[in-house]
Design goal:
With 505 residues, the protein is mostly beta strands. The protein has four domains: 123 residues, no CATH class; 98 residues, Sandwich (Immunoglobulin-like), CATH 2.60.40.650; 169 residues, Jelly Rolls (Sandwich); 78 residues, Sandwich (Immunoglobulin-like), CATH 2.60.40. The protein contains two helices and 36 strands. The strands form nine sheets. Strands 8, 10, 11, 13, 14 and 15 form a six-stranded mixed sheet that branches. Strands 16, 18, 19, 22, 27 and 29 form a six-stranded antiparallel sheet that branches. Strands 17, 20, 21, 25, 26 and 28 form a six-stranded antiparallel sheet that branches. Strand 10 and strand 11 form a beta hairpin. The radius of gyration is 31 Å and the shape is flat. The structure holds calcium ion (4 copies). One calcium ion binds next to loops.
């Protein structure tokens, strides 16, 4: 038995008398069963490789077993096996502790039949014993861009395979010229580093690379699984006061792998999209979490009067259902040192941030929700700073999801319209031009308050509310407020509902 890939894999049909409901293998009520066993003493004694099972192991087998009988008391099944009932079973032969690596064994399939009730039986096909079918795992913390004056950069990566690695290669090319392949001697420790020479490569050039590995059984892996990682050499543009895009036409203003400006099905026009689904993390960092980022390549000069970002988004990103908190997450970040370090502009979030996202498997236009981000609210950035802005999706080492879409981005741009959200709190008009905002509060909201905050994060007004069984409506006088965007926060009990209100006075 091998230390790694000690697997027994086969396709089977098991039309074998089911035990009593709930009975466990080894008990008298388990009745007939199929089991795979091994012997270290040439067949004198046998031990199971995994617990035995009967027709209950697949709902389709049980339904087929019960579909016809001979009318005896108790009845024997007369249903027969058909090829569509094949299911694959994989047994890790070391998992139950009866055997260890190095044991030399014979293996048998045993069908146990008691004295009452029988069925069609057992079929086994496509048997594979200790065949490695798992490709190597390639771990790498990928790059999304390099400063234009970079002369060389190391690309460290790891290659792991339980049955051993046979070959490791990096393919790379500049500006779609011929692909060069660099082969590495296999390192039993798994660590590699490719030193990328960038002499003669300048701003605007795009380096592309991928890492490939093959294991001793011939299984192949590539990172990324299709195409190449793209690394543009960037000379940052001159700072902008504002940036606005609806992404409905070709847009080359951003850089980042696993993101694109595109229009997948379900969307009525172009937007920023992560890969759908986004990959499971593959970095060399803790938990193999990868950061997929999409960065605006022109810096923004932070405004004193309007340091705000507004965009519509769909974020179907893995969250912890029990605690309703992010697991993978998305966040918007800024950097004032050309991307060396980044600060988060708001708390991290995932699909837990919106009830419609929580239950959705796939994004679509109807799931867009607006988001307002105040660039200065985390106190890391001040008016006059020149900052880079990026969207970051963090993916841990297990379980991915559909991903993130971002549309109608306005960074310090004029606010010309505000997308309507499905209303839990009704309010009108919006924009407010008559001086009075009417807010309808639903029945049984309870005790709480309505707070208005301006885009500098300052509280403009706060009103206590107490809403009983009949609901209520109230009016907010905004005639003295400067024209602009405000955030209305309605909080009651454990509920917090946030709406954007545009006031035009
Ligand atoms: Ca029986
Ligand atoms: Ca393998
Ligand atoms: Ca769009
Ligand atoms: Ca995950």
């Amino acid at each position: 038995m091998k230390a790694a890939d000690a697997t027994l894999k086969f396709d089977e049909i098991v039309l074998v008398e089911p035990g009593e409901p709930g009975s466990v293998f080894g008990s008298a009520e388990f009745f007939d069963y199929a089991v795979v066993e091994a012997s270290k003493d040439g067949g004198a004694t046998w031990r199971v490789l995994a617990d035995g099972y009967d027709a209950r192991a697949q709902a389709a087998w049980l339904a087929r077993y019960n579909s016809s009988n001979d009318g005896a008391n108790p009845p024997n099944s007369t249903a027969t096996g058909i090829p569509s009932l094949y299911f694959t079973r994989t047994i890790n032969m070391l998992a139950n502790g009866n055997f260890v690596a190095g044991d030399e064994v014979v293996i048998r399939f045993r069908l146990f039949v008691d004295e009452l009730v029988h069925g069609w039986g057992w079929a086994i096909d496509n048997l594979k014993i200790q065949i490695d079918e798992t490709p190597p795992r390639v771990l790498h913390t990928h790059l999304d861009f390099l400063p234009a004056n970079t002369l060389s950069v190391p690309l460290p990566f790891r290659v792991e395979d339980a049955s051993g690695v046979a070959s490791v290669e990096v393919d790379y090319t500049v500006n779609n010229a011929n692909v060069t392949t660099s082969s590495f001697p296999v390192n039993p420790g798994g660590e590699y580093s490719f030193l990328l020479d960038l002499v003669g490569i300048s701003a605007g050039d795009v380096l592309k690379y991928r890492i490939r590995a093959t294991d001793n059984a011939g299984n192949q892996a590539a990172l990324p699984s299709t195409d190449f990682l793209r690394v543009p050499l960037l000379a940052l543009g001159s700072p902008l006061n504002q940036y606005v895009s609806d992404f409905n036409t070709t847009n080359t203003d951003f850089v980042g792998n696993f993101f694109s400006v595109s229009q997948p099905s379900g969307f009525s026009n172009g937007a920023i999209h992560s890969a759908h689904p986004y990959p499971v993390g593959f970095s060399t960092a803790a938990n193999n979490a990868s950061n997929f980022t999409f960065m605006l390549t022109q810096p923004i000069t932070v405004s004193a009067a309007n340091p705000n970002m507004v965009f519509d988004e769909v974020a179907i990103v893995e969250f912890n259902v029990a605690s309703n908190t992010p697991k993978d997450f998305v966040v918007v970040e800024a950097s004032k040192n050309n991307g060396n370090t980044w600060q988060e502009l708001l708390p991290r979030y995932a699909a837990n941030a919106n009830s419609a996202w929580r239950s959705a498997a796939t994004g679509s236009s109807s799931l867009y929700r607006p988001r307002l981000v105040n660039i200065t609210q985390n106190n890391q950035f001040a008016a006059g700073d020149n900052i880079l802005i990026r969207f970051r999706l963090n993916s841990d080492n297990a379980t991915n999801a559909w991903g993130w879409a971002i549309d109608n981005l306005s960074i310090q741009g004029p606010i010309t319209s505000i997308a309507e959200e499905p209303l839990e709190i009704a309010y009108s008009p919006n924009p407010v031009m008559e001086g009075l905002l009417t807010i309808e509060l639903p029945a049984n909201l309870g005790e709480g308050h309505i707070r208005f905050v301006n885009t500098q994060g300052q509280r403009i007004s706060e009103t206590a509310i107490q809403v009983g069984a009949s609901g209520t409506s109230l009016q907010q006088d905004v005639r003295q407020w400067p024209t602009g965007l405000y955030v209305m926060q309605v909080s009651a009990g454990d509920r917090l509902i946030t709406k954007k209100i545009l006031v035009k006075n």
